[in-house]
Automatic annotation (TrEMBL), chains A, B:
Subcellular location: Lysosome
Organism: Poecilia mexicana
Domain Glycoside hydrolase family 20 catalytic: 135-452
Active site per the UniProt annotation: 291
Protein name per UniProt: Beta-hexosaminidase
Keyword Lipid metabolism belongs to the record: yes
Example GO molecular function: beta-N-acetylhexosaminidase activity
A GO biological process held by the record: carbohydrate metabolic process
Amino acid sequence: TQWLSHVSSVWPLPQIVIPSPERYQLKPQSFSFGYRRNLDTKHSCSVLDAAFKRYFSILFPGYTYANLITFSIGYPNQDSSERYKLSVFAGQASLNAETVWGSLRGLETFSQLVYQDDFGSYYVNKTEIEDYPQFNYRGILLDTSRHYLPVQAILKTLDAMAYSKFNVFHWHLVDDPSFPYQSQKFPDLSNKGAFHPVTHIYTQSDVRRVISYARMRGIRVLPEFDSPGHTKSWGKGQSELLTPCYRGDTPSGTFGPVNPTLPSTYQFMASLLKEVASVFPDPYIHLGGDEVDFSCWRSNPYIRAFMHKMGFGLDFSKLEAFYIEKIVNITSVLRKTSIVWQDVFDYHERRKFLSVVEVWKQGCYLCEVRRVVKAGLRVILASPWYLDQPGPTHNWARYYNVWPLAFKGTEKQKSLVIGGEVCLWGEYVDATNLSPRLWPRASAAAERLWSNERQTSCVERAFPRLQEFRCKLLRRGIQAEPLYVGHCKHEYQSG
Amino acid sequence: TQWLSHVSSVWPLPQIVIPSPERYQLKPQSFSFGYRRNLDTKHSCSVLDAAFKRYFSILFPGYTYANLITFSIGYPNQDSSERYKLSVFAGQASLNAETVWGSLRGLETFSQLVYQDDFGSYYVNKTEIEDYPQFNYRGILLDTSRHYLPVQAILKTLDAMAYSKFNVFHWHLVDDPSFPYQSQKFPDLSNKGAFHPVTHIYTQSDVRRVISYARMRGIRVLPEFDSPGHTKSWGKGQSELLTPCYRGDTPSGTFGPVNPTLPSTYQFMASLLKEVASVFPDPYIHLGGDEVDFSCWRSNPYIRAFMHKMGFGLDFSKLEAFYIEKIVNITSVLRKTSIVWQDVFDYHERRKFLSVVEVWKQGCYLCEVRRVVKAGLRVILASPWYLDQPGPTHNWARYYNVWPLAFKGTEKQKSLVIGGEVCLWGEYVDATNLSPRLWPRASAAAERLWSNERQTSCVERAFPRLQEFRCKLLRRGIQAEPLYVGHCKHEYQSG
């Protein structure tokens, strides 16, 4: 039954697998990928050709493959089909998919089916697989403000994401501690707000490189520009953006959230978001909106006067709603759909202007999911997948035993849960520990978001598969930490 | 006061530092190390020459230094002086030490004093330092049984140890899950007991490489062959070594601790330890002796008959004492001093045969330290430094605020506390996460074991120094995880 363990170790588990003990040997010298051209596709596809090359060297380390013609397609998006059929039969594997993104998922599955015997020969078993994701949004958040992550560390994460079939890189680019995004229009934001204006920034070319690298792996890049809170670093390069806090009648010298009372604020935000909308091709932008501290607004007499004028009374959440609505409107005009953290949904009465809400608070997160879908809005669930705090990896099942749809609701309401996200906040994480902290715990979430719930409800059955998958990650150079005592055929080789 | 922060950032803190704002520029092109030959040392010293080369490239990355003549000295040991005086004055640094091991510590300090300005020029300030360690034994335990660690990962750890002035690598080579040490006399131990008989073992040449690499950095290698418990993997390659467990009147097929009733056991152990004593030059051997489970011994009728014959009654700790005494005697005949885990001290009445006890249990560990020194034995303290479980790195002060001598006792008793040890057990640790889990938390312990307690009692003062030291570790390629939000001039570049 060793062959069965090879086949069933595909992670995340495909929806339908028909395995077989019949196996075929693969010879790197005579192995080739190919595809049948669609009627409307006269040229070969660069994404697939690059993927063939990549997967060839994953399949057969030490060998190379080159056979490229270039041709351009679009970007993956929220509605892209990732469905594929894979059939390995009589020495041939055929992969059918509606989109190139589906083909990428199928290639990943195929690469996990190939194994070596003790003499180094490659094999694959006769197998039929039909597969598609349970949720269309399967994200990982990296935070490049609390610590700067070198581009190389981001690219490495994109590699690992593709191995677990994640498809959204949620880039929490900026926050209080630093502003590493080098804006074309407002270079002072990073000149003054980054940890270092030259070495600790993402240039336009860095950003393009990340987006293109992600696209080649069927991964979307969702930028987040969180406001009005979490913006301390913005204030260094953009004067009058933040609210001056007061002690009694005089400014204290410290600053609070974005100042929502000044027209200049909205001019700046419109201009920045316009740039962001053009730099990042994804139709979604994350606007943040979490954890706004009202004490500074409350201390400022001009803000209080504005509140009075607007008839907000003492309810600062109305002021926040006023601000966020304007920002959402700016985003809509740019033809982008906005995502916000759940705080925005929680505090605001008029919810119709919202589209997608990301649930992140601990506690009864499914209660919150239910409230959001009952309001007719779409949901991304992050609460159970906060991985930034270190935890014993043998507790991985905590991230596996999550049931995003286990709330009372109609089918239509459940369909509003578009997916989930692993959040790796940056307080205690940088390039030194990102990989072992993320992997393989994030892979547990990946299977929950991709695979059929009923087929993946047993932790004991998943454990040996996840162990095997972790070994595959090591073999591919991903520094995924161990689940428990044991070994991999190929251990991680530190540099 | 930037110059002061450069000088005071030396980690662990030297005993006496007299800093100065006067600084000298260093030019890699014209910089050289040199040493005055002692009257009894006619040749140059290979350890120092190698260290000059190493520290030259640490000081000036990108430049190389070569000026080697070979000559052989001994190994560092428990009584080696590590004392040195470093004086930087008028463009010259002079380093005085009684031993080459002291010189290595002084070189490390010197390398931490050199800094670059924003234009890349190198500087060092006029400084006088007198330094010596608080404790002679400053160890790190790595466990290569629960996970196999590639030799490269061990060497990297030795590098990092030298940067924090650790001087003992406690090699917990073998345990229940695997036996990776390839014995000359008993090759079946690793042939059958390792995770893999070829890829997951330490050959004699691997072991020699580790010992030699450690010696070049002034680090001792203390081998541990833990018995009679923690030996499941030994049984695979050495039949009749382990106790067959019984269910009722018949063997159950499982095995317990080493069988202490058979003469063959002691012949085997004497032979194995003789080999170990000759392979590892250190005058100490760690014999383990922890966590012996008596249930299997109790189930076995032959063991019970032996107990009866020896008059041990039902007290199996007497049987364990019987075993350990024999093993300690074997070790003494080999002219090696034995170290045991505290269990041996706790359970046994006749303690005079013991030499060094390692305290590892949680709870009131200083109570245990006191009991051991009152019995006239030497102590190594490990309890507060169990780093294998992940913990938020910002809790590093937990490992810093440890006071090994804060118990009631005479000066003579306190002098029996020879040092401390950081233990990185292997259940959840392998080469993928070893470095970020160990560093910089182990460096907190390093300062406690090296520096003056009174000068290093303030966590707030230590914090910026430790942050700066962590950045130096990154610069030297050590994957030390962040303490909190922030950045280093040179971030870790993943491969």
